[in-house]
Design a protein that fits this description.
Elements: E1 4-9, E2 12-17, H1 27-41, E3 48-53, E4 58-60, H2 65-72, H3 81-91, E5 96-100, E6 103-105, H4 107-114, E7 117-120, E8 125-127, H5 141-149, H6 151-160, E9 164-165, H7 166-172, E10 177-178, H8 183-195, H9 199-212, H10 217-232, H11 235-250, H12 262-265
Helix pairs in contact: 1-3, 4-5, 5-6, 9-10
Length: 266
């Protein structure tokens, strides 16, 4: 039985996690997610991936504690999916959005941190619970959090396990958007807008932000400049640049000109 239900619309693939009663994250769930993402990475019809939950109270509660106890007894081969799947989320070309509605603690927080974007409902709440269990994050949570929000705030959250709500998470930079209406509908609408952007540019933007964050400034600037140069003279970019010039030519001087939908108008 699948733990991730797939729904597809307009270039957006939603993978809905369904592991009742508490939506714990298991080795099997991560292996299945990795398999699905590997297939989607090469799918020309998939522009954006959304990870969501069938449980309206929990995105992913946290790791399955019974499985953690197995790790205490020695190596568990399938546990490697905690690393490989997280890295796949980060390195695959499509942006992966964590749609967080409810609890995202421990491994659930770590899964969301591997995603390209984190969008939340007002009901979302986050906690690095590991120290309360006598451990530390084991799937990259501390290191990704440092890189995302800075050493000071990350240290506070990792050491104390402080629970933060969606508003505070947005202030800290853990999430970039909080949707206050029909959460799923608003997330999918925004994801569909993202899916309409040029895919090569989106993939390159994801890559330069991710890889550049690990480099010194000089190397990061060279990385960005290389990606810019590769895209600038492509037929798609030249067509979109021309469409933008035509919009300016058709507008009154001084009027703002938007770039949304250039592909449709070109």
């Amino acid at each position: 039985m699948s733990l991730w239900n797939l729904e597809r619309s307009d270039g957006v693939v939603e993978l809905v996690y369904d592991n009742p009663p508490r939506n714990f994250l298991t080795f099997a769930a991560l292996e299945e997610l990795g398999t699905r993402l590997t297939e989607l990475a090469d799918d020309p019809d998939t522009a954006v991936i959304v990870l969501s939950s069938a449980d309206t109270e929990r995105f992913v509660a946290h790791a399955d504690l019974d499985e953690l106890s197995r790790l205490a007894d020695g190596p568990v081969p399938e546990a490697r999916a905690w690393y490989t799947t997280m890295r796949l989320i980060e390195t695959m070309p499509q942006p992966v959005i964590a749609a967080i509605d409810g609890q995202a603690w421990g491994g659930g927080l770590e899964l969301s941190l591997a995603c390209t974007l984190r969008w939340a409902s007002p009901r979302a709440h986050f906690s690095a619970i590991e120290t309360a269990l006598g451990i530390v994050p084991g799937a990259g949570g501390s290191q990704r959090l440092i890189r995302l929000i800075g050493r000071g705030p990350a240290t506070d959250l990792v050491i104390t396990g402080l629970r933060v709500d969606a508003a505070r998470a947005a202030q800290l930079g853990i999430v970039s958007r909080v949707f206050t209406g029909d959460f799923r509908a608003e997330v999918l609408a925004a994801a569909t807008e993202l899916a309409r952007l040029p895919r090569a540019a989106v993939a390159a933007a994801k890559r330069v932000v991710r890889e550049g964050a690990e480099l010194g400034l000089s190397d990061a600037l060279r990385l960005e400049g290389g990606a810019f140069g590769e895209l600038l003279a492509t037929p798609e970019s030249l067509r979109l640049q021309q469409a933008a010039r035509e919009r300016y030519a058709a507008s009154a001087t001084g009027d703002p000109v938007g770039f949304a939908g250039l592909g449709e108008s070109a």
